[in-house]
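Q: My labmate handed me this sequence with no annotations at all. I'd like to see what the chain might look like in three dimensions before we decide whether it's worth expressing. Could you predict it?
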Amino acid sequence: MAANPSFLKYVDDHQADFIQRLKEAVEIPSVSGNLEYVKDVENMADFLIKQLTELGVKAEKRAIGSHTITGEEVALPPVVIGSIGNDPSKKNVLVYGHYDVQPALKEDGWDYEPFTLTPDPSGSGRLYGRGSTDDKGPVMGWLNVLEAHKKLGIELPVNLKMVFEGMEESGSVGLDKFIESEKDGFFAGQDCMCISDNYWLDTKTPCLTYGLRGINYYEVRISGPSRDLHSGVFGGTVHEPMTDLFAIMSKLVSPEGEILIPGVKELIAPVTQDEQDKFEKIHFEMADIHAAVGGDVTISEDTVKTLMGRMRNPSLSIHGIEGAFSAPGSKTVIPASVAGKFSIRLVPNLGINNTTECVYKYINEEFKKLGSKNKCEVELTHGGEPWIADPNHYSYRAAHKATVEVYGQEPDYTREGGSIPVTLDFANILGLNILLLPVGRGDDGAHSTNEKIDTSNYINGTKLLGSYLYELAAISKD
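A: Here is what I predict for the chain of 478 residues:
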């Protein structure tokens, strides 16, 4: 069913109030993982508790342990949980967001104070501020939905549970254990889940996101001499670790982006016709990615191949070398030990373990071929599995209808090239279908200077979140 017209009108009539709510949230510099801002992160949790309670939500903070910041043991930011509604005839919906943000300083290159929500003076409707789109804007969107229903005296069409964490920007430390501890408690009985912590592919087309690539991060360390050597004295007489490392790293990926590690390509799940159709329908132009990277350096000029390379297929990226001389000037040193760092973005069928088996086997075999007397060690430093949801699930069908209702156009169905580890935690532990329902645009600049959210996206995003709940209430689970 379409959203209650009174709800939609309330959102339009209270734009200024909703922007004020976002302004108050942005002004709290809730930077996680930084000792200087510990109190501010706690203040943001208190802000949410106050807001939720005033809006009729049964809300509380839950402690989830402690961690170390610059040598000092401090409490992890609490998880804020809330619930409203317990009608057994209604669907049970869980929503997630995070209230912490990335660091930001004016001197980093911001045009405005990062912790002051600043409307674009040119009148574009852009609202600049750290956290405006990642993720305080979407979290405030859920609060806006609650306010509209409370003030109008209308019951929500579903039973709603909320979980907002304060460590997402610092690895969601402790959240997986909290989810596990509450899977038969607070999280029990949920039908589906919605996360709004990603973005449209472009600036014009709303989307629903049903997949994320995973990641394996590796370190290849080559060690030989017990100390750094002078190249004038020892050059030409020893196996040099840097030379060995370059030889190994050059055999990982081709200039065309092809992963050269045997066995990886064979593990990838074949493209289905449904996937192909979804990629072909995505509104995307090569100019979009050219603008994003600052030049025409794409491997392919085919839009579908480019989108699959970004979202659906694995990729191998070389990130850097540790232990090498990098300061300005000239230094004739032979490093005693160097480490090359690279990662592989994972996709369905290409998991942490089977990928690592291929990587270890290949690198060890290639190193043996060098005939070097140095020592080679390969380590998986961290990994996260890929995630994919069923885009034909009733939750996605409801979101599709809500998008058409609010934006007057059908959404693209996208997959993200990066990872949102918390999505996998919820999916694996709770066994729920998870919908990624973005509010912001592709040019919002999350994590960057001059992060922003457009007023139209913030307000229409509030309508979208509310309309999704209405469509979800009406749709069949079949």
